[in-house]
Design goal:
Chain B: It comes from Bacillus yapensis. The complex is a heterodimer. By secondary structure, chain A is an alpha/beta fold. Helices cover 35% and strands 11% of the residues of chain A. Chain A has three domains: 9-65, no CATH class; 88-343, 3-Layer(aba) Sandwich (Aspartate Aminotransferase, domain 2); 353-472, Alpha-Beta Complex (Aspartate Aminotransferase, domain 1). The mean pLDDT of chain A is 97. Classes of the chains: A alpha/beta, B alpha/beta.
């Protein structure tokens, strides 16, 4: 161990210490060995830590201090919508009647939970302009796969089994092609044009009678609205394909444009982005899927419906693609999203998008002088810069990102989308103040100047973090994926 | 409008519009074609103040019968367990819950190290070499295991025990459709996978055989015998396992399992109406580069300090796109943290003691239920669940029990038509003697 290393919990372990308080044994005990044949009971104990309660709290508090969250500071990570995670959501999700109910209880005993799910569905139907919503998918990628499985079932039900291809733009999130593969499709890429939008000519070329669907994020990952969306819908629909909306960027268009009105047949939402379910260090998320009427029969089962005054789980859905997850989705995240929507209301959600887009455009214009701006037009909730100019000075986008750490910021998304050289993708969100944006802009300007005058300070960054740049090559070549006692 | 989450003032707005060179915010949306512009506001419920909304949602939550106010004998994959109070204190550290995926390791060492520790604990419990950073849940983890096995063996048939959780089985079948995998069920005999039937079904076309340990009926499957049958035909041995049970039971890794998956919900994660829970995914070293999802690895920085990074990312969707091992991106990191804290609090001794308490209390419950005249079905080595046969429909009995503050067991007739009137009863370490005795008394009364 290096003297500055943070101890692993296993290294703090001392035999004889405990950190638990199990119920007293108030029943007559038997010799457990007599209940099992030989070999059934574990002989070697699992090497879990032996630590007292304060040791545990100190350990995890120390770890938390080595982590940056939205509450720690600005987090302009493009395509991730790192907005404030409201605290009321956390309180509501912890109510006994939400946190401590069992999914297999009799429906009559969970009417409050079903009512919340139903009302959330109704709200999401209105927000997306779709006809029905399922809350079952656990995250965005899970929603993508669910939507594609429904599209596949739809085509098969029409005797149209030759539709084996899903088209995705070259700027798409990696999950799009990966989800298409898991759903049994082949992925075809459609190019972007010089304006950063889907190339309509290329789309016409790749669309055909084998097209199952086109997956699209709108605005796209460059933060640009696909202005030709109606033509694209027409091209795909007239070829018999379906249009899939990746809702990762919905924060850009709340109350401004609805996927359902743009011609989309299926949409997934990332409730942990636009609707403030916290990101949790990588999850859990929630990825509801909305569909137009002709796809409703294929929704995963069960779905929550209302019969008179009673909320029920409907399993009688013969054309359903089946279950995509045990139980009914990440209910705890759905509770948070519902609380958020009810906190904002219609006027609040409208202001969310307006402020998010205004913040992004303001930052883009102020930074355009110091960094290359590949697409010089109004952006939506995020925008991309290119670090080409700095690269010529020997400072790469990765260096800029690492240097931002010294200023206390989480860097933007970098090297994505793939169609912009030395890409820097910035999404401020609506919950950040102008003062925060200005301070970040000042830091970016300073780094641009450093790249010209003192590039080493950028190239060698970060200087202030608890560890420096880590050796990722060795990590992958000689993987150490667990602790082992020496 | 003014809202506590929106700091922009009118003065800010004006200054920003000036910088951009537009006069209204709406101009920034003029690239949206007129015909698809949404005019006006959503027809959704109006915003509520903090206090009013808390009041409304408190009432809504109050319409549910929760496990704190009632006594639960319901399990079937989701359990009411001891949750060390410190778990929620750690989870409430917003440095954890408001962070994104740790792609910037220099400012994410806390999360990365916590996940590295989680991976280690899962390896320890399951007896496997490698565990990932989490999956959505046990059901989807099982589906991913089936897909890994068909990719690895280049075979397209998977056998799954009918004693696997019915909802997990359904999820496996949904994923299988996408991958053109044939899923065939192995019948159960006396509540465990029918070994003779399995022997007859085995041939060299099978990619994997999936069993659950303890299985859906609470029985402990004979993994030694299963392994011999499965590996003799070079199929992969996939075990879905309740990790708490592994505090007392021999881990699947000891029996030669190739993939072990399950849900860490029993460790500090609330039932939450079925989610979010926390899938785990563990494999042998040979399969390390085939694992779905994120893996954290140990490395050093330029000064030799220990640090952690996301590693072997060439498996993942953001690098490999349509050739990735899985499409999973978001996982259940925060719940993996919860499980880590709970596993740490329990520690080496507590996890064993808790598992043994489950066995003891379930055993005691069987005894008193028998004394009340109830018939035990599928008797044999079991963990914290078992099956009883009732004289009346389970739904009817459960509705009566609820009037007494008891949430009864699972109605097996929902999934197994031949098991109507059969209740799957779960007894965890939280059920006291008094609660068990009352439950037995009530059931005895209905049975009479």
């Amino acid at each position: 161990m290096h003297k500055e290393d943070q101890a692993l919990i296993f290294e703090l372990s001392t035999p004889g210490r405990i950190g638990y308080s199990l119920p007293e044994m108030d029943i007559p005990e038997v010799d457990v060995k007599e209940l099992f044949p030989e070999g059934y009971l574990r002989e070697e104990e699992a090497e879990l830590p032996e630590v007292a309660e304060l040791d545990i709290m100190r350990h995890y508090t120390a770890l938390s201090k080595r982590n940056h969250g939205v509450d720690s500071g600005f987090y302009p990570l493009g395509s991730c919508t790192m907005k404030y995670n409201p605290k009321i959501n956390e309180n509501v999700a912890r109510f006994n009647g939400f946190a401590h109910i069992h999914p297999l209880q009799d429906e009559s005993s969970v009417q409050g939970a079903l009512e919340l799910m139903y009302d959330l569905q109704e709200h999401l139907i209105e927000i997306t302009g779709m006809d029905e919503v399922t809350l079952q998918p656990a995250a965005g990628a899970h929603g993508e796969w669910t939507g594609l499985m429904m599209i596949r079932a739809y085509h098969e039900a029409n005797g149209d089994a030759k539709r084996t291809k899903v088209i995705v733009p070259d700027s798409a999130h990696g999950t799009n092609p990966a989800s298409a593969t898991v759903a049994g499709f082949e992925t075809i890429t459609v190019k972007s044009n010089e304006q950063g939008l889907v190339d309509l000519e290329d789309l016409r070329n790749v669309v055909g009678e084998d097209t199952a669907a086109l997956m699209l994020t709108n605005p796209n990952t460059l933060g640009l609205f696909e202005e030709n969306i109606l033509e694209m819908a027409e091209i795909v629909h007239s070829a018999g394909g379906k249009l899939y909306y990746d809702g990762a960027n919905l924060n850009a268009v709340l109350s401004k444009a609805r996927p359902g009105d743009m011609g989309f047949d299926v949409v997934h939402l990332n409730l942990h982005k636009t609707f403030t379910g916290p990101h949790g260090g990588g999850g859990p998320g929630s990825g509801p899927v909305g569909v137009k009427a002709d796809l409703i029969p294929f929704l995963p089962k069960p779905i929550v419906t209302k019969k008179g005054e009673e909320y029920v789980l409907d399993y009688d859905r013969p054309q359903s693609i089946g279950r995509v997850k045990p139980y009914y989705g990440n209910f705890g995240i759905n509770v948070r999203a519902y609380t958020y929507i009810r906190t904002m209301g219609p006027d609040g959600l409208k202001a969310v998008t307006e402020n998010a887009v205004l913040n992004a455009n303001y930052m883009m214009r102020r930074l355009a002088e110091y960094f290359d701006l590949p697409f010089d037009k109004h952006c939506k909730h995020e925008f991309v810069l290119s670090g080409k100019r700095q690269k010529k000075l020997g400072v790469r986008t990765l260096d800029i990102a690492k240097r931002l750490l010294d200023f206390g910021y989480h860097p933007p998304t970098i090297y994505f989308p793939l169609n912009v050289e030395e890409c820097i993708m910035i999404e401020p969100t609506e919950t950040e103040s102008k003062e925060t944006l200005d301070a970040f802009i000042d830091a970016m300007i300073q780094i641009a100047k450093e790249a010209e005058e003192n590039p080493e300070i950028v190239q060698e960054a970060p200087h202030t973090t608890v560890v420096g740049r880590l050796d990722e090559t060795t990590a992958a070549r000689k993987p150490i994926l667990r602790y082992k006692k020496n | 409008m003014k809202h506590r989450y929106l700091p922009m003032t009118e003065a800010d707005q004006k200054a920003m519009l000036d910088t951009i060179g537009v006069s209204t915010v709406q101009e920034l949306f003029n690239d949206i074609p007129e015909s698809v512009q949404f005019k006006g506001e959503y027809k959704i419920k109006a915003a509520k103040s903090e206090t009013a909304l808390l009041k409304e949602l408190t009432r809504l939550a109050g319409k549910n019968a929760d496990l704190r106010a009632n006594t639960s004998f319901l399990g079937a994959g989701v359990y009411d367990h001891y949750m060390p109070v410190i778990v929620d204190h750690v989870l409430s550290r917003s440095e954890f819950y408001t962070a994104y995926t740790p792609y910037q390791p220099e400012i994410s060492q806390g999360e990365l190290q916590a996940i590295f520790e989680f991976q280690t604990m899962i390896c320890e419990l399951t007896g496997m070499d490698v565990a990932n950073s989490s999956m959505y849940d046990g059901g989807t983890a099982l589906a991913e295991a089936a897909m890994l096995s068909t990719g690895q063996t280049k075979k397209k048939r998977v056998l799954i025990s009918s004693a696997v959780h019915p909802e997990s089985k359904e999820v496996v079948k949904t994923y299988a459709k996408g991958q053109y995998i044939e899923v065939v069920e192995i019948p159960q005999q006396d509540g465990v996978t029918d070994l003779a039937a399995l022997q007859n079904m085995m041939d060299d076309s099978i990619a994997a055989v999936i069993v659950q340990y303890p299985n859906f009926f609470g029985r402990v499957e004979p993994l030694k015998e299963l392994e011999e049958i499965i590996h003799s035909q070079k199929a992969m041995f996939v075990v879905s396992s309740n990790p708490l049970s592994l505090g007392a039971l021999t881990p699947p890794g000891k029996f030669g399992a190739d993939i072990v998956v399950g849900d860490a919900q029993p460790f500090g994660i609330p039932t939450a109406f079925g989610g979010p829970h926390c899938g785990y995914f563990a494999v042998t070293e040979k399969l390390m580069r085939k694992v779905p999802g994120r893996l954290v690895g140990q490395t050093t920085d330029d000064q030799g300090r220990r640090g952690f990074v996301l590693t072997l990312q060439a498996r993942e969707q953001h690098i490999r796109r349509d050739k990735a091992t899985s499409n999973i991106c978001s996982n259940q990191a925060l719940n993996a943290l919860a499980a880590s804290v709970a596993m740490t609090a329990l520690g080496k001794k507590g996890v064993k003691e808790m598992a043994l308490q489950n066995i003891q209390r379930a055993h005691y419950s069987k005894k008193v239920l028998k004394e009340k005249g109830l018939e035990l079905v599928f008797e044999g080595p079991s963990f914290n669940e078992f099956v009883i046969k009732l004289a009346k429909p389970v739904k009817e009995v459960n509705q009566a029990l609820l009037q007494k503050g008891i949430i009864g067991g699972y109605d097996l007739g929902r999934d197994y038509p031949e098991l109507s009137h059969h209740m799957l009863v779960a007894v965890t370490e939280l059920r006291t003697k008094e609660e068990i005795d009352t439950f037995a008394q009530e059931l005895g009364d209905y049975h009479a």
